[in-house]
């Protein structure tokens, strides 16, 4: 029988992976201005600098549990910096855009797939896209031979990215097991969480979190992971979607239905789920794991419990007999969980093998320019070119000379000559075409 799984639970939807677009503010352009006051002799250039564009900053908000808001708002743009003014007045800096995310948010660059940020601590901040630098006003380009420059510098564009946000729950203990084995019931029995519980498969559509407040002030966070089925690591059922949520747990409690009322073999179920863990992430499969044989109150033959318990213990696992519905056996189970969490301490990150980009925005990336030939036309490309073109006043000879010198300094002229450019050939930089003459 096939189930059509609803996407919503009540009036809330759990969104654990979304794609969004972020754009930092552009830097303001530098101004071209001159002092013209009556009593200021030889006032000279007085163009102010452009303001820096605002950054896009992600901030962890402990009050947010899902990525729901990003389902409706997928574009996040910071404010541009203002252009420079006269009298050497600098433009105002663009305001930073603060984007709130839930704890456990992984931020990936969609294009490269690399992790940009792993946001876990409450109120932690991370700059995801840096605003463009403001351009310099013409006051900076005055020299002894060029006392009235009629050009300024353009502001740099703000960084823009397409991102994949992925939510990984922050839980100390994760509950593993097939659907309908009693994980939600166990969570409800030991925490104040109120997961929806019913007697049919796939009832849990979102990973529920609860805080276990135990003896002597001990507490920990427990997560009920939605049921896995065979083939989950390949995307079957709901398992693939939620396997990622147990990647942060220190301890796994594998809940098995020992009653046999559904005709399943708990030992075989145990092996299948653990193979799914190995297939999904071998490092994750090595997390400490104990077993809770649930629904002992429904078992008709007690021998059935002991046979299952002995087989699992022979495999090297600690086994606890419980009835989540009646709370029988829960106290020794949680007592042992507290002991194990203290013994385990901190666990290594699952993401050790992945490169965390500490400095997202690097000037070196902006300086990369390439020259290519297409249909007898030479095309110059690079992210720094917009700033260079914006700095040119093509009606001013000094400005054109500055432009040519910058092209030479950046190695563009040398690269054009290596590719065989001749006098009269067309060079295209952004949307502007030039005829080349040596």
TrEMBL record:
Region (Disordered): 129-155
EC number: 3.6.5.-
Domain OCT: from-to ranges: 360-438
Protein name, entry field: GTPase Obg
Taxonomic superkingdom: Bacteria
UniProt GO molecular function: GTP binding; GTPase activity; magnesium ion binding
One Pfam family of this chain: MMR_HSR1
Cofactor requirements of the protein: Mg(2+)
Lineage: Bacteria, Bacillati, Bacillota, Clostridia, Eubacteriales
Entry-linked InterPro entries: G_OBG, GTP-bd, GTP-bd_Obg/CgtA, GTP-bd_prot_GTP1/OBG_C_sf, GTP1-OBG_CS, GTP1_OBG_dom, GTP1_OBG_dom_sf, OBG_GTPase
All residue ranges annotated as the Obg domain in the record: 12-170
Residue sites binding GTP per the record: 177-184, 202-206, 224-227, 294-297, 323-325
UniProt keyword list: Cytoplasm, GTP-binding, Hydrolase, Magnesium, Metal-binding, Nucleotide-binding
Organism of derivation: Garciella nitratireducens DSM 15102
Subcellular localization(s) per the UniProt record: Cytoplasm
Listed GO CC annotations: cytoplasm
């Amino acid at each position: 029988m096939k189930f059509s799984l609803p996407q919503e639970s009540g009036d809330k939807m759990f969104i654990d992976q979304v794609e969004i677009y972020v754009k930092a503010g552009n830097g303001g352009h530098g101004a071209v201005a001159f002092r013209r006051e009556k009593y200021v002799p030889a006032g000279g250039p007085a163009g102010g600098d452009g303001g820096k564009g605002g950054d896009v900053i992600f901030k962890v908000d402990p009050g947010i549990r899902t990525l729901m808001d990003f389902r409706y708002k997928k574009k996040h743009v910071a404010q541009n910096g203002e252009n420079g003014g006269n009298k050497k007045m600098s433009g105002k800096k663009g305001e930073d855009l603060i984007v709130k995310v839930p704890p456990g948010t992984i931020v990936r660059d969609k294009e490269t797939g690399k992790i940009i940020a792993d946001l876990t601590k409450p109120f932690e901040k991370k700059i995801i896209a840096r605003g463009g630098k403001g351009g310099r006003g013409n006051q900076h380009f005055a020299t002894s031979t060029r006392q009235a420059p009629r050009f300024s510098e353009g502001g740099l564009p703000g960084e823009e990215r397409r991102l994949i946000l992925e939510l990984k729950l922050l839980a100390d203990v994760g509950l593993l097991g097939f659907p309908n084995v009693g994980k939600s019931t166990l969570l409800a029995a030991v925490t104040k969480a109120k997961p929806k519980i019913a007697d049919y498969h796939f009832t849990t559509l979102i990973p529920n979190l609860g805080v276990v407040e135990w003896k002597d002030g001990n507490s920990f966070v427990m997560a009920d992971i939605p049921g896995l089925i065979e083939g989950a690591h390949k995307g079957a059922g709901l398992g693939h979607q939620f396997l990622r949520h147990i990647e942060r747990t220190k301890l796994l409690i594998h809940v098995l239905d020992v009653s046999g009322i559904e005709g399943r073999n708990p030992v075989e179920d145990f092996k299948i789920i653990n193979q799914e863990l190995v297939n999904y992430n071998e490092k994750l499969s090595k997390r400490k794991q104990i077993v809770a044989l649930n629904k002992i109150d429904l078992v008709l033959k007690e021998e059935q419990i002991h046979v299952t318990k002995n087989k699992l213990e022979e495999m090297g696992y600690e086994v606890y007999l419980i009835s989540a519905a009646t709370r029988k056996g829960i106290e020794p189970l949680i007592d042992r969980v507290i002991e194990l969490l203290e013994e385990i301490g901190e666990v290594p990150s699952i993401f050790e093998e992945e490169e965390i980009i500490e400095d997202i925005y690097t000037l070196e990336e902006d300086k990369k320019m390439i020259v290519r030939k297409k249909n007898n036309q030479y095309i110059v490309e690079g992210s720094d070119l917009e700033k260079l073109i914006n700095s040119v006043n093509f009606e001013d000879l000094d400005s054109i000379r500055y432009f040519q010198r910058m092209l030479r300094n950046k190695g563009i002229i040398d690269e054009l000559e290596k590719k065989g450019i001749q006098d009269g050939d067309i060079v295209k930089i952004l949307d502007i075409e030039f005829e080349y003459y040596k």
